[in-house]
Amino acid sequence: MRQLRIVNLLVLALTLCLPSIAQGQPSQDDSSLARAKELWELAIAAKGGREKLHQITSFALYGPEGKDVDFMVFPDKYFSWGDTRPSKIGLIVEMFNFENGLDYTIFGDNPPDIRQGAKPDPEVRSRLLSPQLYYLLDTKWLTPQILRASRSKVGGKSVDVVDVFVTGYGTPDRYAVFLDEKTHLPVRVGIYTDLRQDDMIHWVNLSEYRDFSGIKVPTAISSKLDPSWSHVRLEINADYDPAIFERGPDMKAGPFQWRAKGQRRAPAPDPEPTLSLTPEQVKQYIKELEKADVEPAQIAAGELQRAGRQSAPALKVALQSQSQRLRYRAAKTLLGIKPEEKEALATLRELLLDSQAEPEMRQNAAFGLMWSEAGIAMLRNLLKHSQVLVRRCVIFAFDEIMELTEIPAGVKPAIPILKELLTDDDEVVRRMAEEVLEQIERRPRK
Known about the structure:
Elements: H1 2-17, H2 30-47, H3 50-53, E1 58-62, E2 68-73, E3 77-83, E4 91-97, E5 102-107, E6 113-115, H4 122-125, H5 129-136, E7 145-154, E8 157-166, E9 173-180, E10 186-192, E11 200-212, E12 215-223, E13 230-231, E14 233-236, H6 279-289, H7 294-307, H8 312-318, H9 324-337, H10 342-353, H11 359-369, H12 373-381, H13 388-401, H14 415-420, H15 427-442
Antiparallel strand pairs: 1-2, 1-14, 2-3, 3-4, 4-5, 5-6, 7-8, 8-9, 9-10, 10-11, 11-12, 12-13
Helix pairs in contact: 6-7, 7-9, 8-9, 9-10, 10-11, 11-13, 13-15
């Protein structure tokens, strides 16, 4: 859930910062367009067929603990519940009904922000785009315009690419849909810099397809920003109470208050995803983690992470490697299996403190520690380290933490230390400490 929300916000921020461009299309020839249409139809068939896709009217995404829920009714209704407690942010609950212009936003203990008859906000309405494109590909309300076909590689594997043009949800954008040669299912969806240039500003990777109501839907997602795989749970055409979009959310009714009466519980948990690998395959994927090419290493990390306990022993051995790159990637992969894995966190801490390591590696190690409370505690204890580079890496990690929707509880104990850093000998550390404290101050208080 967090992965998709970060992706949505990143893509939105990037597209809003792009220059305004006349609606146009890349140059194409008839053969490329014909091939693109052929590939698109193969993808639609692989997903389950256009008839079934166009029968989808609602879609729900939620985290494993039921604390984060996004429920949308196409084309114009959206409900979101995010529970960050015990952090100071508390509950973040939103309801948007673009059909009648009714908007509710509730942030912690702040009074509800209510707008009646409001003009649809493109920033908010764009949240209905990504789930349709990434998970469903083609719906009754989102039918991309086919532009051209090409070939590319993802993780060292050849794939077909179909460029499409999407309108109706804010800024018109051009996307590339990367299709597996054999299954024809999307393995990546990327967004271009603008409507004509081929530079890609961001992409998401899709994997672990499962059948939902006869439709193939990915249940694992990673991105250019965060290569670790996140698993999502979802529902298609769930029974819901239409009244949820005619009134304000009930803060006592929980994250599934949108369900039809008598069904307001979290669904049964999905079975944990597993992947059976032979010892030889595990060994080969461990080798690929060390490659300089990020693509094969990312694919290997995903396969090892999905294998879970099966690959964990080999990954722990890799933590002892002489290769800094392998130790770093093995640690990150282990943390994708178990976020509080002590040996993996200790490895990232060692890399951060290793004066022989490249500054980029040390900074990446600090970023790797920011995703768990134990890792944040390590960062907090290094805020006043004697090495200025360590202090810089750590303060930049705290700056990244402040960009998250859910601020971890471990940030609060760091505030006194951050205040001390306002008089640090290093100008960068002083400036970043001031910025982080300002971001903390701007957060709503309970």
